[in-house]
């Protein structure tokens, strides 16, 4: 018979009140408590904690401005140069995969957790999780919520306050509740920002 952890990671109904899951949960909470109490001068220790917390990190360890919250941490992979602003929440009941060069604004929430719509089943404390995947070169604006079973492509900008309920393709700006594609990212964007960069270096 499968363990509750195996059921959880498979996306099936499971019960969180399980000794193995409690152990993982408490380990994460201890690491987060230390992390969120670190000072600006303890950058090295912050990176050590994140490396221990996450399932996988890039060689360039992530930078997350405290406070930061997660359920397990050990179900989350982050790529190179990941940055998150204040109050990031990653509920990694299911696997979370974040690519290279991803930036989060403040109060971004990744919620893999789900609960049955039927109240009777929900009241038996059965729940489930579905994965979240974010590609490379993605900027997620402040107060964005990313729901379970969502995949965000490469080179995407998600506008502030969006609620992402469905997959977002590559190379787009997406906004709203529910989040939808506003427009494609194109050569005009590249030209505009190249000019802005040139102006920056001129001054």
Describe this structure in words.
This protein is of the alpha/beta class and 203 residues long. Helix 2 packs antiparallel against helix 3. It has helices at 4-9, 19-36, 43-53, 119-122, 187-202, and strands at 14-15, 63-64, 68-70, 76-78, 83-84, 88-91, 96-98, 103-104, 109-111, 113-114, 126-129, 132-134, 139-140, 145-146, 150-152, 157-158, 163-164, 172-175, 180-184. Strand 18 and strand 19 (180-184) form a beta hairpin. The protein has a single domain, classed as Hexapeptide repeat proteins (UDP N-Acetylglucosamine Acyltransferase, domain 1), CATH 2.160.10. The protein has 5 helices and 19 strands. 27% of the residues lie in helices and 26% in strands. It starts with a helix and ends with a helix. The strands form 4 sheets. A 7-stranded mixed sheet has the order 2-5-8-13-16-18-19, with no helix packed on it. Strands 3-6-9-14-17 form a 5-stranded parallel sheet. It is an enzyme of class 2 (transferase). Its EC number is 2.3.1.-. This is Acetyltransferase. Belongs to the transferase hexapeptide repeat family. Residues 5-59 form the Maltose/galactoside acetyltransferase domain.
């Amino acid at each position: 018979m499968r363990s509750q952890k195996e059921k959880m990671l498979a996306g099936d109904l499971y019960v969180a009140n399980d000794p193995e899951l409690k152990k993982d949960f408490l380990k994460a909470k201890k690491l987060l408590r230390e992390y969120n109490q670190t000072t600006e001068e303890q950058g090295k220790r912050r990176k050590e904690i994140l490396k221990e917390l996450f399932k996988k990190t890039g060689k360039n360890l992530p930078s997350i401005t405290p406070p930061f919250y997660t359920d397990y941490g050990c179900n989350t992979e982050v790529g190179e140069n990941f940055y998150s602003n204040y109050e990031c929440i990653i509920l990694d009941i299911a696997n979370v995969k974040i690519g290279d060069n991803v930036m989060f604004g403040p109060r971004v929430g990744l919620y893999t957790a789900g609960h049955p719509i039927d109240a009777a089943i929900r009241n038996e404390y059965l729940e489930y999780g579905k994965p979240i995947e974010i590609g490379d070169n993605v900027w997620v604006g402040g107060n964005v919520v990313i729901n379970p079973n969502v995949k965000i492509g490469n080179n995407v900008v998600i506008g502030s306050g969006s609620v992402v309920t469905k997959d977002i393709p590559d190379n787009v700006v997406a906004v709203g509740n529910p989040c939808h594609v506003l427009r494609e990212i194109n050569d005009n964007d590249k030209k505009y920002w190249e000019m802005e960069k040139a102006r920056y270096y001129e001054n």
